[in-house]
Amino acid sequence: MRLSRYFLPILKETPKEAEIVSHRLMLRAGMIRQQSAGIYSWLPLGLKVLRKIERIVEEEQARAGAIQLLMPTIQSADLWRESGRYDAYGKEMLRITDRHEREMLYGPTNEEMITEIFRSYVRSYKDLPLNLYHIQWKFRDEVRPRFGIMRGREFLMKDAYSFDLDKERAVEAYNRMFVAYLRTYKRMGLTAIPMRAETGPIGGDLSHEFIVLADTGESEVYCHADYLGKETPGEDVDFNGDLTPIVSDWTSLYAATEDIVDKAEFEASVPEDKRIVARGIEVGQTFYFGTKYSEPLGAKVATSDGTEVAVHMGSYGVGVSRLLGALIEANHDENGIIWPKSVAPFHVGLVNLKPGDDLTDSVSEDLYGKLESAGIEVLYDDTDTRAGAKFATMDLIGLPFQVVAGPRGLKDGLLEVKDRATGEKEMLSPEATLNKLTAALTG
RNA sequence: CGGGGCAUAGCGCAGCCUGGUAGCGCAUCUGGUUUGGGACCAGAGGGUCGCAAGUUCGAAUCUUGCUGCCCCGACCA
Hints:
Elements: H1 21-28, E1 32-36, E2 39-42, H2 44-63, E3 67-68, E4 74-76, H3 77-83, H4 85-88, E5 94-97, E6 103-106, H5 111-121, E7 130-139, E8 154-164, H6 167-187, E9 192-196, E10 206-213, E11 219-224, H7 244-251, E12 255-257, H8 263-269, E13 275-290, H9 294-297, E14 300-302, E15 308-310, E16 312-319, H10 320-330, E17 332-333, E18 336-337, E19 348-352, H11 358-373, E20 378-381, H12 387-397, E21 401-405, H13 407-410, E22 415-419, E23 425-428, H14 430-441
Parallel strand pairs: 3-7, 19-20, 19-21
Antiparallel strand pairs: 1-2, 4-6, 5-6, 7-8, 8-16, 9-10, 10-13, 11-12, 11-13, 13-16, 14-15, 17-18, 21-22, 22-23
The structure holds one RNA strand.
């Protein structure tokens, strides 16, 4: 993409309302624009990252056997009356009346709707296990939206729903999502620690919140330091096999949020030098809630002996839009964002320091073409602005690599290649640059 | 939902107390000089001062109501 033809509205100054670093940087880097309290437009650069996160989530959901579909944002109140949650959900639910005076709502979650779909089609235990998910915008009318995208009212969530014959198999489904989550966050360069959690209004008796440690996190968490170095299951993990050992390993050490922490137990089970008390951002939550929805909504299947039983369910959420904020909180410096390669909006920022100069133009254009051909996403700064402004912009938007084509280096046939994360710079020939970036960014 | 604050050009702000028809920096546009870490000079454009009533000869400024937004706390992917 040529910067001269892109839409990247960078801000030099920080809008006053942005209190935390991720919000500030997202506004400055032209990723989002607030339209109303807790409601944002996604500008091109922000949308690109959002899509990359979605793709990782989709790949890991598929690996774990979940099937993607798409449910609407607007739901009928009737469905929620069946589960009893229409009145129970309270003011957080945005209620809407259509032209026929029908009561509708903007979905804050989809347990009812997915259960309705399930009960309409699935009749036999032979069709189980089943795990259906979608990635869709949710709306929760928070009393106090804040922190930019981290606590918006409208947010993008991946929510998966598992259906199984009994509790034992439902826990196996739970474990598959648990392991998928470990992998999902790891692929984005985040260490998310699963912590025992309350189930809240969704209900149930088994639940974990996946927490990323960050100073600006909203809740206080207590956990064992060894979680930070724990090995994440690899691509070869067998989702058809027994995942209990992995889940046990990842739940064996103490980890709890402030809501349910037992400080005596924390201190008894964690040696003093291993105790972490920190702030954390919740980026996902898993629930097993048995027949809480399948009973009232009549989601039943026939068993092998012909009797009908309500299915055991679980639900599994990932805050996709919130993850952007969490990623920036975890990866930035005083100059801007530092994107992990897996979610970076572009891989490389190619800076032509002197557009109009035959040498910088020809070398830049040539490298731009070759990088794109190699499948590397390049933001090519071909604009006629000053060097300092170009560097500042590149640091701000945080692409993993910057390549600078300027008269000074090209006099000797060399480009400057900068690693955004380490700040290391090296002078390389165009060919060596291409080889280095191809090696670092593909395969 | 309790407490506090703000609303004046795209962004950041001054002006308000003590009413006289709006200003600064950045950004934008034009010309020129510059050009390896957010340049300089000259000129230009851009505002029904959040909305609505009221007081007044006259309201950004005083009064009342409304709306929007932000911050602190209790709640949530």
